[in-house]
């Protein structure tokens, strides 16, 4: 397996039309790698990539693979019998998955990963917006397009790298973020995980890979998150809507179709916030994002 990208120049992405893999392809393109890709069908994402001067072929075809390619990055949705994967194997070109490639991009960065069954994209976007507005100039990989990014990714000049740390097929075991946020843990992806025990075990394995000088941010109202905290030897910060956490939202109310709430930390009122998004779960997402922003400074 490829351990670093220092000797890689040409990269071909198989299944480049996926939301996550398209983002890292865009980032790699901005870093002056020679990028090409392919997908099964045309899409808005494919058109966006082509506007970035990335050569994207549709559909998949073995003819798209040549000995000039140094590395193949494939979507986890691409089957082993894909003609391009088969051709790459014949030519003995190294093949890695999108999560493995994202893990390589994270090298030498201050990783900020957001995991959880629900709320990953929203919380990741909130963290990204706070750090961008705070002139921290982070690199971002988001699971959906955001207006403030003009896409679902950006390349920053500072070491901060904010990304969705997805648990599907244990993808997040490729990452070692300095700050890991866990929004909640409820059984999901039953096409891969055997049961809730297997699902929770994957999160435990992920948390155990966080550096001991890192920070784990958890939802104090989620029992599985509390269980994770017991398996982490570093610092833990928690958030909640009903007390019993480091950061708590109080006096939540709706005015003019917006949510207003106070944020308290260790008995001290930090500020009052206005949120245009509906739902108390989004108030919880704000708390998680604020913890990260305050930690970064």
Structure notes:
This protein is α/β, with parallel strands linked by helices and 297 residues long. The protein folds into two domains: 10-98, NAD(P)-binding Rossmann-like Domain (Rossmann fold), CATH 3.40.50.720; 106-296, Mur-like, catalytic domain (UDP-N-acetylmuramoyl-L-alanine:D-glutamate ligase). It is built from eight helices and 15 strands. A ten-stranded mixed beta sheet has the order 8-7-9-6-10-11-12-13-14-15, sandwiched between helices. It has a five-stranded parallel beta sheet with strand order 3-2-1-4-5, with helices on both faces. Helix 1 (19-30) packs parallel to helix 4 (98-105). The protein is globular. The mean pLDDT is 96.
Please give the domain count.
2
CATH architecture of the largest domain: 3-Layer(aba) Sandwich
CATH class of the largest domain: Alpha Beta
Shape: globular
Average residue-wise pLDDT: 96
Strand arrangement in the largest pleated sheet: 8-7-9-6-10-11-12-13-14-15
CATH topology label of the largest domain: UDP-N-acetylmuramoyl-L-alanine:D-glutamate ligase
Please trace the helix and strand order, writing H or E for each element. Answer: EHEHEEHEHEHEEEEHEHEEEEH
Proportion of helical residues: 25-40%
Number of helical segments with 4 or more residues: 8
Q: Please indicate the percent range of residues in DSSP E strands (runs of 2 or more).
A: 25-35%
Largest sheet geometry: 10 strands, mixed
CATH superfamily of the largest domain: Mur-like, catalytic domain
- Based on CA atoms alone, the radius of gyration comes out at 20 Å
Extract low-pLDDT stretches.
Answer: none
Distance between the termini: 36 Å
Q: By helix and strand content, what is the structural category? A: alpha/beta
Strand segment count: 15
């Amino acid at each position: 397996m490829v351990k670093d990208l220092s000797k890689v120049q040409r990269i071909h992405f198989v299944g480049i039309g996926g939301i996550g893999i398209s983002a890292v392809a865009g980032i790699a393109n901005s870093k002056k790698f020679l990028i090409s890709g392919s997908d099964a069908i045309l899409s808005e994402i494919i058109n966006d990539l082509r506007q970035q001067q990335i050569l994207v072929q549709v559909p998949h075809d073995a003819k798209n693979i040549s000995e000039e390619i140094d590395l193949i990055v494939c979507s986890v949705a691409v089957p082993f019998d894909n003609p391009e994967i088969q051709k790459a194997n014949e030519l003995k070109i190294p093949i890695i998955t999108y999560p493995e490639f994202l893990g390589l991009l994270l090298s030498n960065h201050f990783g900020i990963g957001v995991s959880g069954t629900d709320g990953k994209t929203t919380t990741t976007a909130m963290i990204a917006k706070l750090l961008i507005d705070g002139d921290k100039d982070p690199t971002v990989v988001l699971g959906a397009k955001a207006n403030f990014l003009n896409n679902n990714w950006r390349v920053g000049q500072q070491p901060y790298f904010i990304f969705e740390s997805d648990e599907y097929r244990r993808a997040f075991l490729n990452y070692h973020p300095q700050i890991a946020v866990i929004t909640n843990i409820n059984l999901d992806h039953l096409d891969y995980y055997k049961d809730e025990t297997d699902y929770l075990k994957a999160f435990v394995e992920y948390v155990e890979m966080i550096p001991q000088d890192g920070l784990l941010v958890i939802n104090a109202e989620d029992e599985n998150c509390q269980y994770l905290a017991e398996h982490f030897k570093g610092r833990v910060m928690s958030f909640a809507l009903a007390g019993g956490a480091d950061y708590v939202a109080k006096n939540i109310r709706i005015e003019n179709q917006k949510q207003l709430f106070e944020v308290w930390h260790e008995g001290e009122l930090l500020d009052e916030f206005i949120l245009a998004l509906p739902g108390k779960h989004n108030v919880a997402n704000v708390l998680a994002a604020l913890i990260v922003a305050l930690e970064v400074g």
